[in-house]
C-alpha cells in the first residue's frame, strides 16, 4: 500500500520512537540497576542475592503456586472448552459471554470478594455452619492464593483454548471416526495435538501473571505469604533498594524469556 | 461491506455515547475543585500525605471552605511506604505526618525544611510543652516538626473470645489463639514486641538480640492470622480475630463499634510514639502548608479531629475542651508514669534499616 | 446422563466465576458496613457513591485514561501497521518482537521499568505518567489485532481506487479503513479493557492525588472497603452486561461462518 520507503519510515517513526523510549530504554534501565550497586559500580550481588534462602524460598513458592494454578486452569478449562465446541454456536456464545463479563469487572474487587467468602466468619463458613458442617480455614494460606489465581486467570486459559478447539475442522474428526478410531483415540491422536497451540497460548497467558503477582498474595495471603512479586514490590516501594529489586526482576525476566522461547518453538513447529 | 461499516459505526457510537454519559454524570456529581495534577503548582492547592483514617474529613472540608484552598489528600500505611515516595521526589507533597524515628531519618537525609514558628501561632500556644520536649529526642530544637498525635501500642482483645486477663505480650504466643492473632504489618512494630519481651531495647543494633527477636516471631507466625494495618479495626469489630496489636487511638474507635473490645498495655512495656507534621524541602505550596498546619492546631479543630480519630492529641488547649471522662480516659490519655519500660523508636541508620528489611523478609517468607 | 453431567460442569464453573460478583452485588445493598453480616436492605451506598468525591474522580480518571490511551495507541498502531507491512522480513521480525515485549513481560517489570524511566527523566508523576504508561502497554494489543487483518487484505481494491484517480489518503479512508475496521475496533476495545482493569502498572506510575479505580480500591482494601465501592461495581457490572448484550445482538446481523466450517462465535472478536 505504501509505495515509498520515505513514507513507510514516516509512518513507522511515531511507533518506533515511542517503543524505544518507553519500552527499550526502561528495560535497559532495569538491567543497568540490576547490575550496579548504589555507588554505580558493576556488581553481580543483586542477581546473586536470589540465592539467599528467604528469596529462594519465596521464588520456589511462587513457582509452585503458579504451576499448580496453571495446571488447574488447564484441567478445568479443557473439558469446558470441549463441551462448548460441541454446542451450537449461539449457546456457546452465551457461555463465552458469561466468561468474558467478569473479566470486565475490577480484578481487585473480585479478589477482595473472595476474602469475604473465605474468611473465618465469611460466607462459605456461615453456609457450612448452617448445614452443620465444620468451618474451613483456608484464608491466608497458599490454598486461598491458588483459588485466587485460578479464579483470575481461568478466562485467559479458556479463550485461547476455545479458539483452538473450535478451529478444528469437524471433517477431520469425522474422518478419524470413519477410519475406525473410537472417541478416546480420536481425542488423543487428533483433537489433543491440534489443540496444542491453544494450550501453549493459554499456559503462557496464565503462568507469567501467576508467577509475578503480588496483589493476590497480599489480599488472600494475609501478608503472611511472600511471593517473589511481593519481594520485588517491597524493594521498590518500601525498602527503597532499586538495585536489589532490579536484580530480582532480571531473574524473573529469565523465566519470562524461557516462556517466550517455549511458545515461539511451538509456534514454529505448528507452522511446519 | 457497507453493512459491516454501518454496524461498526453503530457499536462504536453506542460505546462512546455511554462513556461520555458516564463521564458527564461523574463530572456533575463533583464540585469543580477536583485535583487534576498534571501541573499542580499554579493552582491554589495543598498536597497532604498522611496516615489512613488519621483526620476528620469534615476538618478538611471546613478548611477548604474557609480558605478556598483545594486539598489533595493522599494516604499511606507505614512510614516505610511513605519514605521512598518522598525521597525519590516523584510526588511533591506539602505536608507529611511521619513518626518520630522517620522524621529523624528524613532530617538526616535532608528532606525537610525548617519550620518558621512565627507562622504557626496556634501551634506555639496550644501544643503542650511536654510533647515539644519529647520531640527534641528526634527533632532537636523542634526545628522541623509539629506534634499531631501521640499514643501507645497495645493489645486489643475481644472479651467474649478471651477469658483470661490480658496483661502480657505472651498471650500473643498462646497456641490457644491460633489464627486469632493479628500483628501489625510494620517492621519496627512487629519487632518491638519480642525485643521488649526479651528485655532488649527496641533500638538495639545487636545482631544476636535481633536474631532472637526474629526467632520468636517465626515461632509465632503459624499462630498469626494475618499481618495487617488499618484492616485490624474491621477484623476486630467483626469478630474475625480475638486479639490484635493496635495503636491506642484505634482502641477507642473499635470499642465504640463493638462494646466487647478492650485494650491493654502489657506489663513488659511497649512503644510510645509521636506523629508530627513536617514540610518537605520540595514542597510547592509552602504558604498553604503553613495555613493548614496552623489551622489544625486550633483548639476547636484539634478537638473535632480527636472526636473523630480518637488518637491522643498533644494539643493541650483542645484537651481542655474535652469531657472529664474523656480527659482522664486511661486509653486516650494514659498516665504514662504508671507504666514501666515505655520506649520510643529512634532512627538506626541506613545499614540497620537494611538489616531490619532483611529480617522482615526472612520472617515473611518463613 | 452424560449430557446432564456436561451441563452440570458448565453450570458449576459459571457459579464459581460469579460467586464473588454475587457477593459484591449483595454487599452493595447491605446496611452493615462489615462484610459477612447482613443487617438490612438499603440503597444509601448508591446515593452516597455519587457524592463521594474521591471515587468519582477515580472513575473519571479511569475512563478518560482508558479512552485517551486506547485512541492514541490505535492511531500510532495504525500508522505502524501500515509501515510494518512494507518492511523487509528481518526488520519486521525485530519490530514485531519489540511489540510483543510489553504483552509478554510481567506487569510488575513493565511498571517498575517505567517508574525508573520517569524518575530519571525527571517527569513528575501524575495523570500524564499514567497515560504514557497505558499507551505503551496498549499499543501491542492494537497492533496484534490490526496486523492479521491488514495482512489478509487484498491490495487490489486499493490499487483500483488509485488507478481511478483517488489520492492515497482518500483511497485509504474509503477503501482500506472500512475493511480494517473489525481489527481496529477489536484492538481498541481490547486496549480499553486492559487500561480500565490495570492495577500494577498504574500503581508504579501514579502521582500524588491521582487515582484510578484500581488504585483507589487497593488503598481502600487495606483500610476496610467502603460499601460505595460495591455499589459502583454493581453499577459497572450492570452497564457492561447491557453493553455486551447490545453488542452481541448487533453483531448477530452479519456473522459469517469462518473458513473451516465451524462457527466460532463472533463475540470473540471483542474478547478482552
Mean pLDDT of chain A equals: 87
Mean pLDDT of chain C: 83
Order of helices and strands of chain A: HHHHHHHHHHHH
Structural class of chain A: mainly alpha
SSE blueprint and pairings:
The complex is a heterotrimer of chains A (about 270), B (about 375) and C (about 270).
Chain A: H1 5-35, H2 45-48, H3 53-86, H4 89-103, H5 107-118, H6 123-130, H7 142-167, H8 170-178, H9 183-212, H10 215-220, H11 228-237, H12 242-271
Chain B: H1 2-29, E1 45-51, H2 57-67, E2 70-76, H3 79-88, E3 95-96, H4 100-108, H5 121-126, H6 129-135, E4 146-158, E5 181-184, H7 187-197, H8 207-220, E6 224-228, H9 231-237, E7 243-247, H10 248-257, E8 261-264, E9 270-277, H11 286-296, H12 299-309, H13 316-320, H14 324-327, E10 342-343, H15 350-364
Parallel strand pairs in B: 1-2, 1-3, 5-6, 5-7, 9-10
Antiparallel strand pairs in B: 4-7, 4-8, 4-9
Helix pairs in contact in B: 7-8, 8-15, 9-10
Chain C: H1 2-28, H2 44-51, H3 53-85, H4 89-104, H5 107-121, H6 127-151, H7 155-163, H8 168-197, H9 200-205, H10 213-223, H11 227-251
Helix pairs in contact in C: 1-11, 2-11, 3-6, 3-8, 3-10, 4-6, 6-8, 7-8
Amino acid at each position: 500500500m505504501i509505495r515509498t520507503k520515505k513514507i513507510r519510515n514516516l509512518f513507522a517513526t511515531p511507533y518506533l520512537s515511542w517503543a524505544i523510549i518507553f519500552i527499550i530504554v526502561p528495560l535497559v534501565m532495569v538491567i543497568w540497576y540490576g547490575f550496579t550497586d548504589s555507588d554505580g559500580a558493576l556488581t553481580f550481588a543483586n542477581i546473586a542475592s536470589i540465592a539467599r534462602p528467604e528469596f529462594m524460598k519465596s521464588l520456589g513458592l511462587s513457582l509452585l503456586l503458579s504451576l499448580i494454578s496453571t495446571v488447574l486452569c488447564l484441567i478445568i478449562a479443557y473439558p469446558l472448552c470441549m463441551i462448548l465446541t460441541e454446542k451450537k454456536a449461539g449457546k456457546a456464545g452465551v457461555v463465552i459471554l458469561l466468561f468474558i463479563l467478569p473479566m470486565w469487572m475490577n480484578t481487585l474487587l473480585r479478589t477482595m470478594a473472595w476474602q469475604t467468602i473465605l474468611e473465618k466468619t465469611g460466607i462459605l463458613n456461615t453456609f457450612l455452619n448452617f448445614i452443620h458442617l465444620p468451618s474451613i480455614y483456608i484464608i491466608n494460606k497458599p490454598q486461598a492464593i491458588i483459588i485466587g489465581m485460578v479464579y483470575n486467570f481461568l478466562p485467559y486459559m479458556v479463550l485461547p483454548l476455545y479458539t483452538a478447539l473450535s478451529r478444528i475442522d469437524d471433517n477431520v474428526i469425522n474422518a478419524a471416526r470413519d477410519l475406525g478410531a473410537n472417541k478416546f483415540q480420536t481425542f488423543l491422536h487428533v483433537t489433543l495435538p491440534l489443540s496444542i497451540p491453544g494450550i501453549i497460548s493459554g499456559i503462557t497467558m496464565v503462568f507469567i501473571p501467576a508467577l509475578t503477582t503480588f496483589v493476590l498474595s497480599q489480599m488472600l495471603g494475609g501478608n503472611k505469604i511472600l511471593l517473589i512479586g511481593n519481594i520485588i514490590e517491597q524493594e521498590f516501594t518500601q525498602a527503597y533498594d532499586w538495585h536489589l529489586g532490579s536484580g530480582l526482576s532480571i531473574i524473573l525476566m529469565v523465566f519470562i524469556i524461557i516462556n517466550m522461547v517455549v511458545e515461539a518453538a511451538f509456534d514454529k513447529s505448528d507452522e511446519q | 461491506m457497507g453493512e459491516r461499516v454501518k454496524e461498526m459505526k453503530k457499536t462504536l457510537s453506542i460505546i462512546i455515547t455511554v462513556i461520555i454519559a458516564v463521564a458527564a454524570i461523574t463530572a456533575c456529581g463533583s464540585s469543580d475543585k477536583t485535583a487534576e495534577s498534571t501541573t499542580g503548582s499554579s493552582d491554589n492547592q495543598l498536597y497532604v500525605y498522611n496516615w489512613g483514617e488519621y483526620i476528620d474529613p469534615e476538618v478538611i472540608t471546613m478548611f477548604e471552605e474557609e480558605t478556598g484552598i483545594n486539598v489533595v489528600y493522599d494516604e499511606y500505611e507505614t512510614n516505610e511506604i511513605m519514605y521512598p515516595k518522598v525521597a525519590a521526589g516523584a510526588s511533591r507533597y506539602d505536608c507529611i505526618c511521619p513518626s518520630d524515628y522517620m522524621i529523624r531519618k528524613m532530617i538526616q537525609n535532608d528532606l525537610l525544611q525548617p519550620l518558621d514558628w512565627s507562622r504557626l501561632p496556634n501551634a506555639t500556644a496550644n501544643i503542650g510543652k511536654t510533647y515539644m520536649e519529647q520531640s527534641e529526642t528526634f527533632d532537636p530544637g523542634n526545628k522541623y516538626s509539629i506534634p499531631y498525635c501521640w499514643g501507645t501500642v497495645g493489645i486489643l482483645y475481644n472479651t467474649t473470645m478471651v477469658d483470661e486477663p490480658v496483661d502480657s505480650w505472651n498471650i500473643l504466643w498462646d497456641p490457644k489463639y491460633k489464627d486469632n492473632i493479628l500483628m501489625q504489618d510494620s517492621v519496627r512494630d512487629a519487632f518491638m514486641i519480642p525485643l521488649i519481651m526479651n528485655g532488649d531495647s527496641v533500638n538495639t543494633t545487636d545482631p544476636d538480640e535481633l536474631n532472637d527477636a526474629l526467632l520468636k516471631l517465626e515461632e509465632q507466625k503459624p499462630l498469626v492470622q494475618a499481618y495487617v494495618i488499618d484492616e485490624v479495626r474491621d477484623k476486630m469489630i467483626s469478630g474475625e480475630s480475638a486479639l490484635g496489636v493496635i495503636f491506642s487511638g484505634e482502641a477507642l474507635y473499635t470499642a465504640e463499634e463493638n462494646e466487647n473490645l478492650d485494650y491493654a498495655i502489657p506489663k513488659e512495656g511497649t512503644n510510645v510514639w509521636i506523629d508530627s507534621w513536617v514540610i518537605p524541602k520540595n514542597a510547592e505550596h509552602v504558604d498553604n502548608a503553613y495555613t493548614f498546619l496552623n489551622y489544625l492546631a486550633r483548639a476547636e479543630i484539634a478537638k473535632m479531629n480527636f472526636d473523630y480519630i480518637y488518637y491522643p492529641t498533644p494539643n493541650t488547649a483542645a484537651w481542655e475542651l474535652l469531657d472529664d471522662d474523656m480527659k482522664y480516659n486511661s486509653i486516650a490519655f494514659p498516665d504514662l508514669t504508671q507504666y514501666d519500660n515505655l520506649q520510643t523508636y529512634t532512627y538506626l541508620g541506613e545499614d540497620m534499616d537494611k538489616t531490619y528489611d532483611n529480617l522482615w523478609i526472612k520472617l515473611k517468607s518463613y | 446422563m452424560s449430557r446432564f453431567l456436561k451441563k452440570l460442569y458448565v453450570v458449576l464453573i459459571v457459579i464459581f466465576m460469579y460467586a464473588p460478583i454475587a457477593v459484591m452485588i449483595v454487599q452493595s445493598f447491605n446496611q452493615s458496613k462489615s462484610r459477612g453480616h447482613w443487617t438490612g436492605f438499603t440503597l444509601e451506598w448508591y446515593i452516597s457513591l455519587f457524592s463521594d468525591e474521591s471515587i468519582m474522580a477515580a472513575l473519571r480518571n479511569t475512563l478518560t485514561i482508558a479512552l485517551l490511551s486506547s485512541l492514541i495507541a490505535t492511531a500510532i498502531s495504525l500508522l505502524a501497521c501500515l509501515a510494518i507491512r512494507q518492511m523487509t522480513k528481518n526488520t519486521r521480525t525485530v519490530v514485531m518482537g519489540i511489540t510483543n515485549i510489553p504483552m509478554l513481560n510481567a506487569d510488575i517489570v513493565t511498571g517498575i521499568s517505567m517508574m525508573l524511566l520517569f524518575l530519571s527523566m525527571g517527569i513528575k508523576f501524575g495523570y500524564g505518567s499514567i497515560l504514557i504508561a497505558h499507551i505503551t502497554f496498549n499499543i501491542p494489543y492494537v497492533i496484534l489485532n490490526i496486523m492479521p487483518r491488514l495482512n489478509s487484505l487484498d491490495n487490489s481494491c486499493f490499487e483500483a481506487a488509485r488507478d481511478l484517480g483517488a489520492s492515497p489518503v482518500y483511497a485509504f479512508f474509503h477503501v482500506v479503513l472500512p475493511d480494517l475496521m473489525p481489527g481496529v475496533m477489536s484492538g481498541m476495545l481490547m486496549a480499553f479493557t486492559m487500561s480500565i482493569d490495570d492495577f500494577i502498572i498504574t500503581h508504579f506510575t501514579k502521582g500524588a492525588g491521582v487515582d484510578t479505580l484500581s488504585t483507589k480500591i487497593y488503598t481502600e482494601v487495606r483500610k476496610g472497603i467502603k460499601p460505595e465501592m460495591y455499589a459502583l461495581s454493581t453499577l459497572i457490572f450492570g452497564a457492561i452486561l447491557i453493553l455486551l448484550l447490545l453488542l452481541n445482538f448487533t453483531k448477530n446481523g452479519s456473522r459469517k461462518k469462518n473458513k473451516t466450517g465451524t462457527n466460532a462465535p463472533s463475540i470473540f472478536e471483542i474478547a478482552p
